[in-house]
Amino acid sequence: MQRNRMHQLKAPILSAVEAIRGVHLLRLDAPEIAKEAKPGQFVMVRCGKETILPRPFSIHGVDGTQIALLFSVVGKGTGWLSLKKKDDTLDIFGPLGNGYTINEKSKNLLLVAGGMGIAPLRFLAEVASGKGKKVTVIMGARSGECLLPVTPSQSLFNKGMLPADFQCVNATEDGSEGFKGLATQLIPHYLKNIDQVFACGPMGMYGAMTKMPELKDKDVQLSMEIMMGCGTGVCYGCAIRTRGGLKQVCKDGPVFGMGEVEL
Questions:
Q1: Are β-strands 196-200 and 219-223 bridged in parallel, bridged antiparallel, or unpaired?
Q2: 29-84: per-residue pLDDT in tens?
Q3: Considering the chain, what is the average pLDDT of its residues?
Q4: Phi/psi at 209 (nearest 5 deg)?
Q5: Which domains, ranges and CATH numbers included, belong to the chain?
Q6: Staple 77 to which of 11, 47, 112, 170, CB 3.0 to 4.6 Å?
Q7: Separation between Cα atoms, residue 76 and residue 133, nearest integer Å
Q8: Positive or negative, the Cα torsion across 67, 255, 113, 239?
Q9: End-to-end alpha-carbon separation of the chain, Å?
């Protein structure tokens, strides 16, 4: 279990860009959180006076004292956040939860991102690459317009959206870019020599993955996307069913083994 000290702070926004339409990338100065953050963990952000509860956001990247958050606009909270500018300050706390676990003996990793699932996986890809792991990323989206850029032109800490030494394969439902179909349809074609599989995406994607015989004997870790209240395990608003009983996504997760959760 990953147990960090939680930090609450006022984090200045260093940059705010719209990566693609409706998807925003914020870079914050948050040294205490950056120092302890691990891939798959998240922070809670207070999004204005109109939203009573804070909102959870995966840590998209870390560089020195800085952290990055990637999010899409889906409601009042994220709408408010999308209007924030450089030099504005956010009330945040974290890092929270239990993230992905990279086995030291693993050499080849497969990352599967459905839609906004790239949010936590970008941080994981960078850490894995730094450990000398070979990383392959499958990115799925409805269309090419919904695919997040991975080139330095849309920079994150003056780097690409993903580390340079990775293989990225795109899948779009309409076939406008890359493979025509779902990201899950590509998984069997990229499992050769893969030691671990890490995924983040919608529940439908996870349901399809549980039915794949090719993944039966693999170490597969899923990041559960669910509404949260407190983010610290107090309210029990994010409880899910697992083979070990009810567990809280914010405290016990958000990352669980695929064989552990009941989908």
A1: parallel
A2: 999 999 999 999 999 999 988 788 899 999 999 999 999 999 999 999 999 999 99
A3: 90
A4: -65, -35
A5: 7-96 (2.40.30.10), 108-223 (3.40.50.80), 225-263 (2.10.240.10)
A6: 47
A7: 39
A8: negative
A9: 22
